[in-house]
Amino acid sequence: MKSVSIITVNFNQPQVTDDLLRSLREVNTYPALEIIVVDNGSKVNPVPVWEAADSGIKFIRSDENTGFAGGNNIGIRHATGDYLFLINNDTEVTPDLIGKLVQTMESNPKIGMISPKIHYFDHPGMLQYTGYTPMNYYTGSNACIGQFEEDNGQYDSLSGVTGYAHGAAMMIRREALEKAGVMAENYFLYYEELDWCERIRKAGYEIHTDLSALIYHKESVSVGKRTALKEYFMNRNRILFIRKNASSFAFFIFCCYFLALVVPRNLLHYIKNKEYSFIPVFFKAITWHFSNKPDSNYLGYPLIR
Predict the structure, then answer these.
(1) Are 129 and 112 in contact (CB under 8 A)?
(2) At what angle do helices 278-291 and 263-272 cross, to 10 degrees?
(3) Bridge partners for 215 per DSSP
(4) Where are the domains of the chain?
(5) Is the Cβ–Cβ distance between 126 and 230 less than 8 Å?
(6) pLDDT tens digit sequence for 75-108
(7) Spatial CB neighbours of 284, under 8 Å, sequence gap ≥ 6
(8) Burial code of 233-253, b = ≥16 C-beta within 10 A, e = fewer?
(9) What is the rounded CA–CA span in Å between residue 158 and residue 297?
(10) C-alpha dihedral (54, 57, 59, 65), degrees to nearest 10
């Protein structure tokens, strides 16, 4: 039986992480698990309490918040499984989730990474993810298939190759990891899993979904609160992703599109909604690229320090 390393990252949400661990212990039926929890610089270190309660889990403490990629990469470097299953701490598993994903991966050596179907935890039966469309490199946009729809099995036939895995739940083959490397940490938040999928593809593998496997995600179906931090990284990283993965010609077209349409659209949106403080943040996200290379480790936003 293939071993699976479960990796999850906690940041100031110990109770949410406890619920996931309870789900893995009481609901999951796949036996060959190694569970790794990385605390990513929480204000209060929960690791001593966790270690006292459960010695069978690897708990790792990072003294600083290293972002989504950085936190998961810490766990990856401690993982020993044949497959590594990265799941958000605000998810809960279904009994045969992990077994189904392993079985699908075993049946096709071309699969480098796979994601299950995702339902919203607070709205069982409502889809969050059944796959992604390919990226349009000229506009820097793509779409999540099925999001906010009731699940009547209408997308189940799409199991197979997809545009991108979903960052809330993605299983990677160890051989693909060794060829593609870990996630790029200079994204910090947003787009890092898309970039990882591109590198896995370049390493010769495919990105798949298995829509017979299901996980629940506690992310709200309502639009989350917009913050300066989110606005900065969503815009900076959208550009960064295209810089790193598109051809020079496609990047040129993207820049024209971004300057001609996205910039005025966003500015009008900020003004209309009286989000004036977002305007300098937006321009800071753009100008970061004037003085930094695509692999620069300088994140450019002081609030994360």
Answers:
(1) no
(2) 160
(3) 93, 118
(4) 4-217, 228-304
(5) no
(6) 999 999 999 999 999 999 999 999 999 999 999 9
(7) 232, 300, 301
(8) bebbbbbbbbbbbbeeebbeb
(9) 37
(10) -120
This prediction has a pTM of 0.95
Residue type, 237: N
Spatial separation of the C-alpha atoms in residues 193 and 129, rounded to whole Å: 14
**HSE-up of 126 (CA within 13 Å, CB side)?**
13
Q: Which residue has the higher pLDDT, 189 or 264?
A: 264
CA distance 228 to 280: 10
Report how far residue 235's alpha carbon sits from residue 231's, in angstroms, rounded to the nearest whole number. 6
The C-alpha atoms of residue 227 and residue 278 are separated, in whole angstroms, by 8
CA distance 282 to 286: 7
- Tokens standing for 270? 């900020």
SS3 assignment, position 215: strand
The structure tokens 């179906």 sit at 221
- Which architecture characterizes domain 4-217 according to CATH? Alpha-Beta Complex (3.90)
Q: Which residue has the tokens 């077209």?
A: 253
- H or E, element range at 178: helix 174-180
Query: Is residue 39 within a helix (H) or strand (E), and if so which, with residue range?
Result: strand 33-40
CA 205 centroid distance within chain: 18
Rounded to whole angstroms, the Cα distance separating 82 from 80 reads 7
DSSP labels, 55-81 = TTSEEEEESS--HHHHHHHHHHHH---
- What percentage of the chain exceeds 70 in pLDDT? 97
Which phi and psi angles does 152 have, rounded to 5°?
-110, 20
